[in-house]
Amino acid sequence: MVTRVVMPRLSLTMKEGTVGVWYKKEGDIVEKGDLLVEVFSEKATHDLEAPASGILRKILVQEGVDAQVNAVLAVITAPDEVFSEAEMYAETSQTVEETSKRILASPAAKRLAKEHKVDLALVKGSGPEGRIVEADVRCFIEQTSGILPKVKEIIPLKGFRKTSAERVSASFRKAPHSTVVMEVDASKVMELHEEIQASYTGILVKVVAETLVEYSIINSTLEGDQIKTFEDVNVGVAVATENGLVVPVIHNADKKSLGEIDAAIEELTEKARQGKLVREDLAGGTFTITNLGMYGVDLFTPIINPPEAAILGVGRIVEKPVVVEGKIETKPITMLSLSYDHRIVDGAPAAEFLRKVKEKIEKGLEIEG
């Protein structure tokens, strides 16, 4: 059966949307419910799922191109099923024709141009098929003003990067952030890393997951006027990719062995870098860990991954002089920073949670299993 993938209506007033990132390519096998394509309007961004299982036979609307609501974006068929490509293109011809008659520009670009009285016909677009994005208009304004510096490169804000930007902006607007910081002796972690070849991230996930069981207020969310603590402990690990930041989730991390956690991290990280994460890989997180130690960062203030209550930032491990029983020694030290939503968590329980994480790391928690 031929299944049409159409542009959804994301709001009552939406007339057209823009295709963002295609998560699948032509010829890929898709299952019903797989993440298929990112679409967005002026008011919303949405990951469209495959409406049926089969083969993604044809993509009719490419990334960065506008399409009217209900326009056919792609076609899913059985492996050997015959379909009329001409018929599918005919269904989108109105969108294509109208697009060719007007200047291709994103909603944000049109809004900025209107604010600054810029004629879009004078702006060169950097998007697909010359589509004008917001950065193009901003660049035009800067270069024609004669005051601001010239722009070297325009990088469209789209895909994972766009979604990440929207999420962290919403998080910082809604959740009053506060952060507590502690120095941690990483000697035992380094020993464990060498002895059983466990990853530092895996060890941290294991320690944090077990600590979240003890401090359920950290493993919670705020919905309306209710704080909901979770029974499941699902730890997200921030991964940087070429397309932006993603946070795949290790579900039920408190019930997994260190070996299972390491295997899950390796698998999810590889899928993230190949752009093959599915909805289940990204959904259901209750806490996030973000590690910038590999970039030489000592300390930073992470932004909470909504709708979670807290996030743990991890810095690099570096040798530092410390006083032990009145004597100066050098020890491998890392900095942990816990950002938390002050509507949910007060300073004392946040500090207690971080202190417990520190204690388990420094005592060499038995997590070899």
Give an overview of the whole structure.
The structure is a single chain. This protein is of the alpha+beta class and 369 residues long. The protein folds into three domains: 3-101, OB fold (Dihydrolipoamide Acetyltransferase, E2P) (Beta Barrel); 107-145, E3-binding domain (Dihydrolipoamide Transferase, Irregular), CATH 4.10.320; 176-363, Chloramphenicol acetyltransferase-like domain (Chloramphenicol Acetyltransferase), CATH 3.30.559. It is 31% helix and 27% strand. It has ten helices and 19 strands. The strands form five sheets. Strands 9, 12, 15, 16, 17, 18 and 19 form a seven-stranded mixed beta sheet that branches. Helix 3 packs parallel to helix 4 (134-145), helix 7 (200-214) packs across helix 8 (258-273) and helix 7 packs across helix 10 (347-363). The protein is globular.
Tell me about the largest β-sheet: 7 strands, mixed
Strand content: 25-35%
Element pattern in H and E: EEEEEEEEHHHHHEHHEEEEEEHHEEEEH
- Principal-axis shape equals globular
Please report the first level of CATH classification, the CATH class of the largest domain. Alpha Beta
Tell me the distance between the termini: 49 Å
Taking pLDDT < 50 over at least 5 consecutive residues as the criterion, the unreliable ranges are none
Quickly describe the structure.
With 369 residues, the protein is of the alpha+beta class. It has helices at 85-91, 93-101, 107-115, 134-145, 159-174, 187-196, 200-214, 258-273, 279-282, 347-363; strands at 3-6, 16-22, 29-30, 35-40, 45-49, 54-59, 66-68, 72-77, 177-185, 220-223, 226-229, 235-237, 239-241, 244-246, 249-250, 287-291, 310-314, 318-324, 327-341.
